[in-house]
Design goal:
Blueprint (H helix, E strand, L loop, with lengths): L1 E7 L2 E10 L4 E7 L10 E5 L5 E6 L2 E6 L4 E4 L4 E6 L5 E8 L2 E8 L5 E5 L5 E2 L5 E6 L8 E6 L5 E3 L22
Antiparallel strand pairs: 1-2, 2-3, 4-5, 5-6, 6-7, 8-9, 9-10, 10-11, 12-13, 13-14, 14-15
Length: about 180
């Protein structure tokens, strides 16, 4: 699944597309306006079973049913989400009064299970932690923090203290020994 512009002969189509590999077949699921960025589908996350996705569309988080090619808003204030690797959870960022919190939802029912602190929605491979960056080091640097999704407890990664200045982070291992 990709969001973007697709050139078909002289025409340029903008929207959310399904790309079949390895054949390279392309099917447009939803149309977007070429010159209207808020109509584009961004921050895509695909569920483990590949039947649903979440994405930002028209400044709101939407759930996309890929089987029926439908979408619906997931709620006010939610602005980004990610499915857990084990398929059990959907974590979403909620903004209220300028503060960000992580909302943990049951992936099958989409019922909100708990609200945790701020994270970057980067799931550990074992689906037990979310990774984030605390920015208490000044304007440009922060510290990696892993958040336990069961308890909400946050553990700073000491070797990263005030050394992280990039928002693109991710996991390479589930080994969380310090």
């Amino acid at each position: 699944m990709i969001d973007g512009a697709y050139r078909r002969g002289p025409d340029v189509l903008r929207g959310l597309f399904e790309l079949s590999l390895p054949s390279g077949g392309v099917r447009r699921l939803f149309q977007a306006q070429l010159h209207e960025p808020t109509s584009w589908w961004t921050h895509l996350s695909l569920s483990r079973d590949c039947r649903r996705a979440v994405a930002i569309h028209n400044r709101r988080l939407e759930l996309v049913d890929l089987d029926h090619v439908t979408s619906k808003p997931l709620g006010d204030g939610l602005f980004m989400a990610a499915w857990s690797p084990d398929g059990k959870w959907l974590a979403a960022l909620l903004e209220t009064a300028g503060k960000h919190e992580t909302v943990l939802m049951d992936a099958s029912s989409l019922k909100r299970v708990r609200v945790l602190g701020d994270s970057d929605l980067e799931w550990s491979p074992d689906s037990c932690y979310l990774l984030g960056v605390d920015d208490h080091c000044g304007a440009y640097y922060g510290t990696l923090v892993m958040m336990d999704i069961e308890t909400g407890s946050r553990t700073s990664i000491e070797s990263s203290r005030c050394k992280i200045n990039q928002d693109t982070i991710g996991w390479v291992s589930s080994d969380v020994r310090q």
